[in-house]
RNA sequence: AGGACUAUAGCUCAGUUGGUUAGAGCGCUACCUUGACAUGGUAGAGGUCCCCAGUUCGAAUCUGGGUAGUCCUACCA
């Protein structure tokens, strides 16, 4: 074995072996444990969020698989309607053509070509992460089976009256020419203006001043509203206004919607271009005047010189025209929330169109109950509040999209515009006796989330009733980010409850979002993304810079991104390997919402891998070719052997508990501490005095060799879900020595806690041993005694147990603390430096080694600490309230602490006195 | 406007039902190429647990208020 761990040598080889051996498939036996992957965009690539999430899922799956569950991890991708269509349209643009020139069918073929070409990227990357889903069951939302499910759901919901078509205001994206749902609109504060202008009364008796942030919409005004209680305007209600420019007469109405104290207290109402105005207009029976076309340019309902203008140009012209008419009162700076499409980035226009909607309110009822009753549990629990808040005020869901890529809506229209919904044109004709009436299928497709909402059951074969559906549904847990609780989680719960009459999953584990070192969201446009694969393989600086600076939305950002990248990664990124990356993700998976990705952590865990690697090297060097007790020859375990097995047992308990609570950070920390701080730092060192002692018996040698192997082999299994590659690689080398069978650690049994294996005697003996050794090391360290220098040690005030331990463990003490010998001090010990182990003092004779003043200073520092503690403890114990009310156990503990501290203080006092007498 | 979350070492974060001398990793200081590992070892320094008040014998932990930050939902034209 190499002296440093080289992940690139082993990872891909092992992965290919696992996959081809079929280890990822469900075993078919044991209790089912199912996870459906949140489907990433089929043409996308893996980002840090995927890496994080998929690692967590893989840990859960590998853990349950090793525990004997029948695990199904279902992989797949979604078709990402808008995103994918945009990508392909951009490609067409580079070839100087458009989808309209190609036509619908040819365009869709192009997208399928693109999907074939790029669709494997993300699944290849997932493999690099060591993910172990059942690839043979990979699904895609546009697969025939899933498409059938989508169609079936649509038809049934329509027949049940839960899907309807209506002409309503929708969020219209004038760039992408499609409606989008509320959730796809991002409203952010932007600087704008508030224009005040004057509307003259039709009878010439005066005017009224309205305020608006969107002057151009005045061409579609159908009334002006004031608050019914507003004394300033009450007398005007019912009067008519002559709308300037448009030269239409519109009424003044009273409506509670108006806030008296905002703006001028008069609101122009444009029902066809504003959601609130739409409601006001409906209440007062106002007409809807649509002034925009699909590009958000002014249409034929506006004066001739406005027609065809963009909304931006129209705004300028309205302002200029009003100004010319002397109607512009004032312009104020005003910050307002501007709604933009999450994909296109352009300002969204409320626009009147025919769209399909899901009656979400009806479906939400059972979905709320499922969480209230605990049938579905969120982890951490507080996300349930977010879920409830949204669900209880849910709006109908606009599911139609004016795109070509997606599931085409199974609705047909005759020439009169009557709509027929069915599974096929034939079915529709037959059902409605349409004969050969010309029919035209709806041009629109469904929101991608509509198909994702069916994911847990459509992937298992629904609407057919399959054995898989029976066995693996409901799924066990959904692992997802809080950003898609509404988009996906809530909708999945609604749809699954409605169609399957059962929950889609029992637990929703909500993890945080991975951010960069400064806490900024990683995004391509900011140029701060990290590619998980680059962390695994490494990347040189120039390549990283060019990766981050290509495809930036704003070319100006280029220099800035480059500078920042060069500063943050002056050496590029080293290769850390998959296991280190996974361990980093897991160690960051606490309950927080933001996960700042810290390069220091991944480096630390790369080192951890190296530590494991070298520990294994040590174990193999000392066990290969020797009898490790695997054939049943008798063994004698040392106290260290018994201790490490006991510590391992505690670790198993801690890891299992942490996993059951989805605290992967705590689980990984337990593993780290056990392997590094106990197994490597102490146990391997404690094994040396046994293995390298010519006087050790065969039984003792076998005992220690067996324990070296056994503890490591068990720890590897314990760590395997977290670090699959290095554990498999070492396990393969170790399994024969450990006497275990099996082709892969993946399918080996997961270690389980057994309290019978806890050895408290061995633990307290080793604690004693450690504090003895640490006492010596502290003196060495602070007194600058070379580690190579062997020193004699005396002990004073040793109890009979101390004496027995010294006798029994002198080989450990001498070797680990580099001692000449340990002896019981007589009544007049030589001048010494001191350390305390319980009541016993360890004396390191100073002759020629130690500076008296330095030792006094050191002891005084200890003394000060003890004084502090004594003051604190005695204060506490002299407090009547404490003694009267605190539990007896707590009081006893404090008394004991005080006694120990007092005793230690007097010993150190004495020592200082004797040093001072020199 | 409502709500949620966060605030602990220079940095990134743990801290279970109130009882610890408040922990880890990275970074820092000193020493060490000892026969698994310098991607290492040993020792050490470093904290007003954001602030104020309260509950309690006892608060990093519970309550109230404040400050700062992040986010979500709704929205005033």
Describe this structure in words.
The protein is an alpha/beta fold and 918 residues long. Strands 6-5-14-16 form a four-stranded antiparallel sheet. The longest helix has 29 residues. The mean pLDDT is 91. It binds one RNA strand of 77 nucleotides through β8, β12, α11, α21 and α23.
List the helices and strands and how they pair.
Elements: H1 7-21, E1 32-36, H2 48-66, E2 70-74, E3 76-77, H3 81-94, H4 99-102, H5 104-118, H6 120-128, E4 139-140, H7 144-159, E5 163-173, E6 178-180, E7 185-200, E8 207-212, E9 223-226, E10 240-243, E11 248-254, E12 266-269, H8 275-283, H9 311-324, E13 328-341, E14 349-358, H10 360-372, E15 377-379, H11 383-391, E16 397-398, E17 400-401, E18 411-413, E19 419-421, H12 425-432, E20 440-441, E21 445-446, H13 448-452, H14 455-458, H15 467-472, E22 475-481, H16 485-500, E23 505-511, E24 513-515, H17 532-537, H18 541-549, H19 557-568, H20 578-588, E25 594-596, H21 599-623, H22 639-660, H23 664-691, H24 698-719, H25 724-738, H26 760-783, E26 791-796, H27 800-816, E27 819-824, E28 832-837, E29 840-845, H28 852-878, H29 880-885, H30 888-916
Parallel strand pairs: 1-2, 3-4, 9-11, 15-23, 22-23, 24-25, 26-27
Antiparallel strand pairs: 5-6, 5-14, 7-8, 7-13, 9-12, 10-11, 14-16, 17-21, 18-19, 18-20, 26-29, 28-29
Helix pairs in contact: 1-25, 10-11, 10-16, 18-19, 20-21, 20-23, 21-23, 21-24, 21-25, 22-23, 22-24, 22-26, 23-24, 23-27, 24-25, 26-27, 28-30
This protein binds one RNA strand of 77 nucleotides through strand 8, strand 12, helix 11, helix 21 and helix 23.
